[in-house]
Amino acid sequence: xxxxxxALFFVTDSALDVLPxxxxxxxxxxxxxxxxxxxxxxxxxxxxFVVVGLGLFLEGLEHSLFPLGRMMAEQLTxxxxxLDTVEHAVAEFTxxxxxxxxxxxxxxxxxxxxxxxxxxxxAMKANTVSGGAIGVVGLRVAVAIGAGIxxxxxxxxxxxxxxxxxxxxxxxxxxxxxxxxxPREIVPLAYDSGGxxxxxxxxxxxxxxxxxxxxxxxxxxxxxxxxxxxxxxxLFPIITVLAYGQLAILRGRNSKTExxxxxxx
Amino acid sequence: MKDSLRALxxxxxxxxxxxxxxxxxxxxxxxxxxxxxxxxxxxLVGGALLVVAGLTFFIFxxxxxxxxxxxGLAHSLARKGSVFWLISFAFVLGFGTTVAEPALIAVAxxxxxxxxxxxxxxxxxxAIDDYAFGLRMTVALAVxxxxxxxxxxxxxxxSLPILIISGYTLVVLLTAIAPPEIIGIAYDSGGxxxxxxxxxxxxxxxxxxxxxxxxxxxxxxxxxxxxxxxLTPILFVLIYGMVx
Lengths: 265, 244
Description:
heterodimer; A: mainly alpha; 12 helices; B: mainly alpha
């Protein structure tokens, strides 16, 4: 009985979450385009799938990605685990001793960004528009390296408790300097690639990892130190993609001069 | 029917592929680095299956109902050329898709729970729900404004870097006066907004608009909307932290 009530709440909750966008689209279709919605039946079926899917997904998060992120943070910072890998006493732990955390964070950031399907579409579009100068694989690797560095550096910040705004401000300063030097056509793409890496599956895991770390490391507070990982994950791909664009242009220029040299001979 | 089943299967494969790198990395670390039995493995596996099933249904439903209508609307509004309707559509599109964004729902709930633990807000379910709801509405409002600014930029041909740079300068200034406990949440909310629901619809609007206007390059002008949608939530949540 309780379960049935719970399930009902879940469905009404997620229905309310999806309702605004459905109502807006219907209203615009009627008011502005002046047409009835085509395929009303299809849309109702789709709406049911969206609502049920959202409910299942959120319920599943509570039992998988959230506890997994916290568990990994806890285990990788556990004194017994650290004593296996370092040689001094518990009281003297420094940020270097948590190197497995950084490796884990980099692996999660890199692998999830490499597998992100929306990135694939963007990379292919960029390849066509740039006339092949921006490679599909190269762009994906650039984004993935950025995401890996981002999560890893974010964990370093949680563990040390250094102020988040300094890192973010420094990061965006680098972005600004790069923007001035980078080829113009890669700039909007680079800015967007930051948002692309933070997918629906990665975000909950990374958020839980940061909160778990702040919980487990002595002297850190989840509220003050636990957040910020997602911001890092969104920021660093911008830097690496801009750098990749700069490299691609540089390489293109070199091969062009070679060619013209050969022609003049 | 057969086509729908095939589409559903393809979405299931995609959701599984989203989750695979996480499972592989955690599995390798458990097996070779941590080397300890995992508590509650069954619940974790069950939860992961729910995540895959949920994401599959969610995206399948979006493709069936939301995406075709949204993309169609974005294209016909972009062609119609009425700035008023375009701006109002941009706002409700940003707002509505963000309210339905699963990652935001999850992270807002988590943030509210952490705030309650630290006794920044009352430790009652009502207070936690209110805080999470307020956070989500703030972010949704911010994304709505972001898409409006982004659309205006495409129409008026403003420079993207200058807008972004002034936005982040504003972030730095607000950070200096915002309460410290909101800063982490605010910075993270920028990355959370742009996922499953928002990106395809907003990109359709941007690229549709850039290709229907003369002298615009879809590559150069169509992108960049997402960049705004990652920026304004930081500003708005910082302000939310100062007000609440």
